[in-house]
Design brief:
This protein is mainly alpha-helical and about 100 residues long. The chain contains three helices and two strands; from the N terminus they run H-H-E-E-H.
Length: about 100
């Protein structure tokens, strides 16, 4: 498997776990809570990618340019997460500007 596909698979598995299993179990559904858990799950995906590619010198293709594993992981995680996050927030009535009151 190519390095790009490996990172994409890691990110897809973590996003699938988050929005398919972990987040639906949350009792409190607010933007702040979602952001906190996204930070935790995103960090776990980055740690795994780092364990595989940190210091390896492998370059990742972003179609128009090559980059390192960190930038590739961050960008692809964000892109993979857009649709599930939007659907989850819409389904549970979470607004980007949640009011804590």
């Amino acid at each position: 498997m190519s390095p790009e596909l490996t990172i994409l698979a890691i990110n897809a598995v973590f996003v699938g776990f988050a929005y398919g299993f972990a987040y639906p179990m949350l009792r409190v559904r607010t933007m702040n809570r979602l952001a906190l858990f996204d930070l935790i799950i995103g960090s776990a995906a980055l740690i795994l990618a780092g364990l595989l590619y940190y210091g390896s010198g492998v370059r990742f293709s972003m179609v128009l340019f090559d980059t390192n594993w960190l930038f590739f992981s961050l960008v692809t995680m964000a892109l993979i997460e857009i649709i599930p996050a939007t659907l989850y927030m819409r389904r549970h009535g979470i607004s980007m500007m949640d009011d804590p009151e």
